[in-house]
Each structure stands twice: as C-alpha cells, then as structure tokens.
C-alpha cells in the first residue's frame, strides 16, 4: 500500500476519507476555513472574485469556480492524483468538473482546488464541508514513444 501524505492549510480542515471499505476513491470537501474570497469565470468568460464570508459559494449558471479543499498533497514520485466528479452532485445539482477529470502531478505542491461548473439553469450553492469531488492515487506507467509510419 502506497502512502499519500496530506497537509492542511488550516488546523480546522477536515482530512479526506473513504466513505466505505469498498470505495475506490476518497472524498474531497469544500473547505472555507481561512478563505475570504473565491474566484472564477462567468458564462461570458469574464473573471470574478466574490466574498466567501458565510462559508458558502454560490455558483451561477455557466460559472466556473475554483473551490478550495484546504489540502496540499505530497504525491509520491511516479504517481498522480486523479480527481473525478461526484455523480450525485452532477445529477442532482448540475455541478460538474469543468475539466471532466483533473490530474495532479507529483511535482505540484500547492493547495488543491476543484474546478466546478454549473451546467444547470439555476444558481447552486455549496457549503463548507460539502463533498464536491472524489480522488484516487494512480501509479504512472513509464512508456516510450514509437514512431509509426503512415502508409498508402
């Protein structure tokens, strides 16, 4: 079993966990601790920053928002972290990962943010502690490129 170290940006941040013994991925939550603003782009591709004073993020239709997890992962060399959407959040609220699946490389040692977009036609709100994505540690396979010639 590989170890995945994680650091909290605030002592009150909740560490990720597997929901059940059979879970393939661990849950990532929105963590508002120590955050005053959240940032994103609206449906017209204009950047914005909005206050997060109440520990919630309001995501308007078409918005793409960086949602903080408060976590910094120390990913072992030769591995990556794969971030997947949560099916319930996608189905019930129309909140999906803007990049469909995120890949965090082992040399990235900053706070992990989840890029959520609202594909519904109504405003959606997420609250501090809400589970917003799921992640798994994946071993990277080395490979070599093989050039193929195209023929007629």
Description:
- 5% of the residues lie in helices and 41% in strands.
- It is built from one helix and 13 strands.
- Strands 4-3-6-11-9 form a five-stranded antiparallel β-sheet. It has a four-stranded antiparallel β-sheet with strand order 2-13-8-10, with no helix packed on it. A two-stranded antiparallel sheet has the order 1-7.
Give the end-to-end Cα distance, rounded to a whole number of Å: 49 Å
Proportion of helical residues: under 10%
Question: For the report, how would you describe the main beta sheet?
Answer: 5 strands, antiparallel
Give, in order, the helices and strands. EEEEEEEEHEEEEE
Unreliable stretches: none
User: What is the radius of gyration?
Assistant: 17 Å
Which structural class should the secondary elements be placed in?
mainly beta
Beta percentage is 35-45%
Secondary structure elements and pairings:
Layout: E1 5-8, E2 26-29, E3 37-41, E4 47-51, E5 56-59, E6 64-68, E7 71-74, E8 79-84, H1 87-93, E9 95-97, E10 102-105, E11 113-118, E12 124-127, E13 131-139
Antiparallel strand pairs: 1-7, 2-13, 3-4, 3-6, 5-12, 6-11, 8-10, 8-13, 9-11
Please give a quick description of this structure:
With 152 residues, the chain is mainly β. The chain is built from 1 helix and 13 strands. The strands form 4 sheets. It has a 5-stranded antiparallel beta sheet with strand order 4-3-6-11-9. Strands 2-13-8-10 form a 4-stranded antiparallel beta sheet, with no helix packed on it.
């Amino acid at each position: 079993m590989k170890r995945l170290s994680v650091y909290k940006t605030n002592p009150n941040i909740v560490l990720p966990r597997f929901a059940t013994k059979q879970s393939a991925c661990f849950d990532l939550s929105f963590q508002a601790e120590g955050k005053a603003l959240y940032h994103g782009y609206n449906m017209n591709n204009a950047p914005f920053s909005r206050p997060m004073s109440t520990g919630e993020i309001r995501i308007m239709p078409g918005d793409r928002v960086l949602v903080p997890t408060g976590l910094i992962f120390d990913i072992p060399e030769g591995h990556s972290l794969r971030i997947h959407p949560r099916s319930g959040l996608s189905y019930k609220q129309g909140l999906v990962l803007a990049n469909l699946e995120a890949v965090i490389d082992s040399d990235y040692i900053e706070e992990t943010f989840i890029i959520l977009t609202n594909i519904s036609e109504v405003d959606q709100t997420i609250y501090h502690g809400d589970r917003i994505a799921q992640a798994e540690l994946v071993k990277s396979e080395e490979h070599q490129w093989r050039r193929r010639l195209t023929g007629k």
